[in-house]
Amino acid sequence: MAADTEIDESPEVPEPEPTSDEAAVDAEQETKESEASPEDELEKALADAKEWQDKYLRLHAEWDTYRRRMKEQRAEETARATEGLMKNLIPVVDDFDRTLAYAKDNGEGGLIEGVEAVFNKFTDALVKDGLEIIDPAGQAYDALLAQAVGVVEDASVPDETVSQVFQKGYRLGVKVLRPAMVTVTSGGPKREAEDTEEDSE
Q1: What is residue 8's DSSP assignment?
Q2: Is this structure's pTM higher than 0.85?
Q3: How confident is the model at residue 118 (pLDDT cuts 50, 70, 90)?
Q4: Which of 1, 42, 124, 132 is deepest in the core (most CB within 10 A)?
């Protein structure tokens, strides 16, 4: 008869619980492992500083752009207001011109002096605010500044010279508010082109 198989029925012995000292050592070890090294902390600090610097530069650029746009907008609004004022006053200047011409033709000497003084004071005020009078008599015709309403035969001056100005023009800055109305000459020698060549040094 085979021998009976022996069964170890001894109870399992539980592993001993770690002592308080061992637990403290383990906790300290875990803390050290979780703590970043000084190099890591420096790298993170530099990254944070770079991020804040980028934010500051973006905000500064946006603020500069805003200020520039506001400045340009105010300048445009001022220019439009000045332009509107000048356009409204140009007919008044025309009336002064016609009044002076009539007075001179009819011998109204006393009237001429008074009106001329007021006219000069008025136009001086407009010129100080940027209005430029376009009176190109005797000058080369410029289609950007004047409108030709007639042609006059004159062989004594180069072609396309302004012969007579029927109505003065006005310009504010680079914008022509109204071109001058003129007659131009023909039949004379061709006008020499302006020498625009520069020294190539």
Answers
A1: -
A2: no
A3: confident
A4: 132
